[in-house]
Structures are given as structure tokens and as C-alpha cells.
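Chapter review: from sequence to fold.
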Amino acid sequence: MATDHDATAPAEAPVRLLLPQILPALVVGVGSALLFLGISKIAEELQGVLWETLPDALDIGAYSSLWMITVLTATGVAVGLVVWKAYGHAGPDPASEGLGGPPVAPGVVPGLLLASTLALAGGVSLGPEQPTIASAIALAAWLGLRAAPNVPGAFWVSLAVAGTFGALFGTPVAAALVLSEALTGQPGPGSLWDRLFAPLVAAGAGAMTTQLVSSPSFAMGLPPLTDPGWQDLLAALVVAPLGALFGLLGCYAFPHLHRAFGRLRHPMAMLPLGGLVLGLLGALGGHLTLFKGLHETQELVGSIGAFSSGELARLAAVKLVALLVAAACGFRGGRVFPAVFIGAAFGLIAQALVPEIHPAVAVSAAVLGVLMATTRQGWVSLFIAAVIADSPAMLTLLCLASLPAWLVVTGRPQLELDHRGEALR
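The C-alpha cell string follows.
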């Protein structure tokens, strides 16, 4: 018969292992958040110069076709110079990079962050998530392995990913979902919550740092859905897979576009040409199709009824092509935030065509479908769609709508390439 001491011994050992992880997790979480906030602030200030100060001084419309083409082409030249001359060429080809991955050399980080900041400020249709996560991983692994050589590098990677996700979304929930999905197929000692303990500390520290400094919000101001009915469920079950199909169009086109830019071989050919194409797309789609897309999504959703279905289709199509071009030609940036704009525009198309669909159902279900197609991260897609809806009643509908959307995307090409330039599946 086991004694009381024997019964408690297995529970005590994990506690002794977990407690020392708190301090490094806090440090990495806060550091990841400060990295994200610093880059965002620099990009925001530079964006103000490029899109407000300069055009005002030159007496040129900030979002005139000429100015958009000029700024985006110049951004392509500037980022091309960084990719060409910076140590490590500002990191690996972003077309083959997801959210996370092995650490790059710390010397690559300055060029990667500079290239990302220039792209964010210049109006390129990419977000900050991938370069920020890659930089946080590189710095955390480099510093962590020097401070504690016996700690596995994967520990520092998980802290950096979690801390940055917490900072990006202002909550540790997204990090918990991402890491739970990642750890499912990775055997290891301890329960899932033992393995999530330190990353959740990092995510919480990153989220709190962002909340204290900038108070981020992903709420789009959609009218809340308080009493969903069968018609709302039916709409979600239809709109989500249709959004996934629209996102898959980009996934199928991406490898071909990447190969087309790859034939130019040199970053000073690929990126300026990509910037020119993005400028032309901006002239076609207007200012809402520029930048990473978060504020533009809020503006779009705040103007429900102001755009016809044809205008919304143009916005969605232009933003999708802009995302593909930006990622294919070598700009450093992530795809989550632009995909949110694409999903929101697609959802508003459905709502414009069928006004009986509640706007919260149309937008959040379409965002869910597009994100599932472009990121293949089921939990993150569901989380972002639910946050955008800002309505607890939507969660059940979105959970059910994720099932047909996942049937559409599973086994299909992803918006990420392998080392041969072929789409991952």
C-alpha cells in the first residue's frame, strides 16, 4: 500500500521542474512584446512620414495613384537593398516560412527587422507576425543557450513563439491554441499542461506588456449576434467553406507566382518589380488594400452598406493578389493580418448579396474560412474569427462552421512552399 508520501511524490517532481521556468518565461515574454512594440512603433512613425508628411509637403494626394506607385516601388528598392546587402540576406525566403521554425543566426535579425519595418511602413500587404516571431526565436535561443547551456533550444523557441503570439493578439489564448496544436504530434515527458506551463507564462507576460503599453483590440465594431437561430447556423456553414475556397485560389496560384519572380534571381530585380506591381494594385484597389490590413479591416467593417458587392469583390481580389505578390517576390512579412482583411471583404460580399445574413456571421465565418486556407492553423483561425465577432453567441456557430471549412482545405496546397518551391499540403 502506498504511503501519503509515495502518493504525493509524483506531483512534487513536476512542481520542482516548473517553478524555475517562470523567470526565463517572464523575461522572454516581456522581451518578445517589447520587440514587437518597438518595431510597430518605428514602422508607424515611418508610415506617417511616407503617407502624410511627404505628400503634404509636396502637395500630392497621399493616396493618389502616382504616390502609391512611387512609394511602393521605392519600398521595393529599399527592401531589395537590405535583402541583397544585409548579413544573411534578411533571413530565408519568406515563401517557405511559417509561424515559427528553427532559429536563424542572431546576425540575421537586424536585416530581417529592417526589411520588415520598411515593408510595413511602405504599404506592403504583409503583417509583422512572421519576422517578429523569427527574430524573437533567434534572440531567445541565442541568449538562452548562453545563460543556460543545458536547457534544450526547443524550450527557448517555444517561449519566444508564445511570447510573441501573446503580444500580437494581446492575450495568451492564441499562444495556447497554437502550441497545443503543435505539441499534439510531439511526444514528450509530462502532461500537456506541464509542457504548456512555461510558454503560457511567456504568453501572459507578452500579452500584459502589450496591454499596458498599447491596449490592442481586434474588435471590428460588428453588431453583436445575441440570439443565433437556424438561419445563422446555415449561413455560417455556407460562408465559411466558400471563404476557404476563395483563399485556396491564392494557395494554388502562389507557387506559380513565386517561380515567376524567382526567374529574376536577384533581389534588386524581384523586389522593385514586386513593389511596382503592388503600387499598381493599390491604384486599382485604393488605400484600403494597402498595409497589413488591421486598421483597414476596421474601416471596411465600419462602413457596412457603403460598398456594393462589386466594389467589395474588387477589394477582396486586389488584396488577395497583393498578398500573393508581396510574399512571392521576397518582402519580409506575415500573412495573417492581410488574410483577415480578405475574409472580411469576402464576408461583406455575402452580406451584400443576401442582406438577411447577419453581418457578424458573414464576416467572422468568412474570416474563419480564409484563414484556414491561408494559414492551415485551425485553432488560430477559430480564435481570430471569434475575436472579430466579439460575441460569445458566435462561438458555437464558428466551431460548427470550421468543420466544412476544414474539409475544403485539408490535403490541399498551403500558402507556404517547401525547399523545392512546391506548395506544402
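Two observations follow directly from the output. Residues 239 and 250 are 17 Å apart (CA to CA). The chain is about 70% helix and 0% strand.
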